[in-house]
Amino acid sequence: MSKYISSVVVGLLAWITVRIIAGAFGLNEKALQLGYWLPHLSAEQRSFIVSSAAVLIGIIAVVLWLALNADDRIRNLLSSRPELGSLRVEGKPTAKMAVYPRNPACSVELGVDLFNTMSKLMEVEGKLFATINGKDLDQPMDASFPINGNASKTLFVRMEDVPVRTVVQTDGLEHHLSAHLRYELTYRYANAKHSRRTCKTVSWTFATRAAPENPGARQTVVMPVIVHFSDEIEEWNAGNNRGTAFRSKKA
Question: What one-character DSSP code corresponds to residue 68?
Fold first, then answer.
C-alpha cells in the first residue's frame, strides 16, 4: 500500500512543480498565444488543454513510479540494509535418506544452499522447521551464521528415526519420502542495525528403490528429487533470533 501512496504524492508534486514552472516563466500565456496551432478551438478550450498538461504530467509520473518500482529502488539506495531478496536459494535443494530395508525407520538429511548476492559480509539468524514423513523436529532449530559476499552457506537439518513408507515391488523395495523444510531468517550487513526478513518452505517428494540382495546392509541414497517452493516472504522489517544451524557449502 505504501508504494501507491508514495506514487500519488509524487504525482501531486509533479503537478505542482509543472504549475509553478509554468507560472514563473509565463508558459501558460505563451501557449495560449499560439492559437494558430488549434484554430478550430475556442480560447477557453485551449486554456483547458494547457491547464490539463500539468495533470497529464502528474499521471505519467505516477505510472512511471509504479512501473519502475521506484519506491523500492530509492529505499535500497538510502538504506544500509542489503537489497530486498539478496539472500536467495542457489541451485537445487538436496535430500539424503539412509535406510535399512528391514528397519521401520530411517535417517534423513535436508540441505538448502543460500547465496549472498551482495559483495559485503552479512549476518544471518533465524529458525528452521522440518517435517519428514509426518514427523516434526522436536523443536525448531536456531540458526546464526555469517555469510561472505558472493558466497554460499547450506541450511542443514538431520532427523533420525523417521518412519519409512515402504512399498514391496517385484524387483525390490520402494521407499517413499515426503519432507518439508521451512526457514525464517533475518539478514543484515555485519554490525548494521537494520535487517531484512526472508522465509520459504522447501518441499521434497520422491521414491527410491532398494534391491533385496543384502537385506541387512545399510543403504544410503542421494538423488535428484521433485522440489517445490511455497509460502515465500520477503519483508523490509525483521525481528531477531539467535542460535546455530548451518553447514558450509562444499566445492
Answer: T
Q: What is the dihedral of CA 42, 45, 51, 53, to 10 degrees?
A: -110
CA–CA separation, 164 and 161 (whole Å): 9
Please, is 151 exposed, middle or buried when counting C-beta atoms within 10 Å of its C-beta (0-12, 13-18, 19+)? middle
| Extended beta strands in the chain, E state | 87-89, 94-99, 105-116, 122-132, 135-136, 141-147, 152-163, 165-169, 172-189, 196-210, 219-222, 226-235, 247-248
Question: What is the CA angle 130-160-162, rounded to 5?
Answer: 70
Residue 145 has which C-alpha cell? 551464521
Q: In which region does residue 170 sit, left (phi positive, over 0), alpha (psi from -120 to 50) or beta (all else)?
A: alpha
Strands 141-147 and 152-163, sheet pairing: unpaired
- Averages of pLDDT over runs of 10 residues in the chain (251 residues) are 67 72 62 57 64 74 78 64 89 85 82 94 95 94 94 94 77 78 94 87 83 56 72 68 41 37
The model carries a pTM of 0.60
The pLDDT assigned to 248 comes to: 42
Closest by Cα among 247, 201, 199, 189 to 228: 201
The amino acid present at 130, given as its one-letter code, is A
Give me 113's grid cell: 544452499
At residue 147, the 3 state secondary structure works out as strand
Residues ≥6 apart with Cβ < 8 Å to 125: 142, 143, 144, 145, 185, 186, 187, 240, 241, 242, 243
Angle between helix axes 70-78 and 2-25 (nearest 10 degrees) is 90
